[in-house]
Sequence to fold (113 residues):
Amino acid sequence: MKKIKTLKMNYEFKNVFNKGKYYIGKQVILYDLKNKYDYNRLGIAISSKLCKAVKRNKIKRKIRAVYQILEKDTIKGHDFVFIWNKNENIENLSYDVIYNDIKKMFSKIGILK
RNA sequence: AUAGUAGAUUGAAUAGUUGCGUAUAGCAAAGUCGUAAGACAGCGUACGAGGAAAGUCCGGGCUCCAUAGAGCAAAGAUGCUUGAUAACGUCAAGUGAGGGUGACCUUAAGGAAAGUGCAACAGAAAAUAACCGCCAGAAAUGGUAAGGGUGAAAAGGCGAGGUAAGAGCUCACCGUAGAUGUAGUGAUACAUCUAGCUGUGUAAACCCCAUCUGGAGCAACACCAAGACUAGGAGGUUAAGACUGCUCGUCAUCUCCUUAAUUUGGUGGCAUGAGGCAUAUAGCAAUAUAUGUCCUAGAUAAAUGACUAUUCACGACAGAACCCGGCUUAUAGAUCUACUUUAUUU
RNA sequence: UGGGCUGUAGCCAAGCGGUAAGGCACAUGACUUUGACUCAUGCAUGCGCUAGUUCGAAUCUAGCCAGCCCAA
Fold:
C-alpha cells in the first residue's frame, strides 16, 4: 500500500484540531492525534484567504513530498494535519526549511524510529 | 535616426535520479479490500495543465421539468446599416458624430410632432410667451418680441432693407425641415427646388416603436447495491405541480396533507468536438465549402513535486473540474508584419 | 461549483439627480475646587475604484475590487 492515506471528512479535521496536540515550526504548524488504524493519515489545510491557487498548490506539494520521505520511518497510527504558519511570508517557501521542521516535530512526538 | 499606430506569434531550454494521476487484449498473479454493488495492488509502455485554465458578464449544446404548447398581460434584454454565425449584448465591412499633424482611435448612434414627469440657485421668464419696456392714443385699449446679463440652456445666427415701434415682414450668406432626382442592397451622400422656421434640454427619467426571451442546472440527471420507511386520509378533474397573473390545452405507476423518513456507498454522465492543422476555391473581410491529415489531461479533499548539473534574456500573470463560441480583467519579456509623424542626407 | 447581498467619518447609519441628516467616539472652549453630566463649536480632499450619460452624479449605466450570506 504505497498510496498516501488522507483525511477526508470535515469532522475528521475538526477532531484533530480540537483534541490533538500542536507543534509550531518555522513555516509549518502540525496537529497530531492518535487514531484507531494501523496506518498514518495526512491532512493539509490552507485557507483560500492566504494566497491564490498556484501558491497554495505549491505549499501542498512540498509538504506532501517531505511527508512521503519521512513517513516511511515512523511508527504507525497517527493523524496529522499541517497548517501554514501565518507569521511567515509565503514567498520564502522552501523545501529545506519544511524538511527540517517536520523532522524536528516527528522526533518531538517520538515516532521516528 | 527619432517618436508612435495597428495586427499577429510566443509565454525558458536540456540531461539524470526519485515520486504522483490516467489509460493499457504488454508481463506476472488468480489474489486483496468490501455486507453488497463494485474497486484495486507489482513491473513495463504511452500520455499528463492555460493564453487567459481567472471573473462568471452574454450566447449555445447537454439533462430534467410535458414533447417545451397557444393567446393576452406583466417582467427583462437589445437598439445606425448590411453581412457572418448554431446563437449572441460577439465579429467583419461600411455610414453619421467626436478626437488626433498623421498612421489611426472612440462611439447604448430609433422616437422629444402619442402622453406624463423633471430642469436646484440665479433670472422678468425654464415653455403659457405672464411682467417691465418700446410705439400709437386724451384715456380705455391696441400693436410688438428689438432691449431687460442671469444661467449649462433664452424662442434660428449675422448683415442690409423695411416700420409708428417692431417682426423671416422682405432679401443675401450660413443652419434647419420637407419634396424630387442621381449613386448605393442599405444606413447615407451629393445636387436642385420649396418652406420663412411653430415646437429648449433630458428617453443611461417613466414611456412609445421594432426585434428577442419558458424555468432550473453536471453538486443537473440516469442506473446499481445496502439501509430506513412502506401507517392513515384526500383528489381523478381543476384542487396542488410544471418561473409570475388570467384563459385554453396536455401530463401522470400521479399529486397533496398528518406521523416517520428523505441516508450512505458505487458506476455512468466524462473527453471525437458547431475539434485542431495544412492546401485549394468563393468573398474586401468576418466566414463558408471541399480534400488531406492529427487524436494531444480527465481528477473527485482533487494528479506536474523534490533534488542535482549546464545554458541564457535569470523567468510575469497565473492551476483544468460537463463541454464549446465570445466578452472583460491580470500579464516579465521576446519575435515578426504593415503603416505614420518629425529631422537630416541623396 | 452554483445562487444572492452589501460597500457613505474611527464605529452605527439616513439620503435614491441640485452639491452629504443624525447618534456614539474624538478635539477645543464654557460650567465645576476637580471629574462626570450638560451646553457651544469643529471634524468627510469627495460617498470602494475606473470610465460613460447629463448643465450637474453618493444617486443612473458599464467594467473592476473587497467583504458577507445561502445550497451541497
About this structure: Helices of chain A lie at 10-19, 53-71, 95-109.
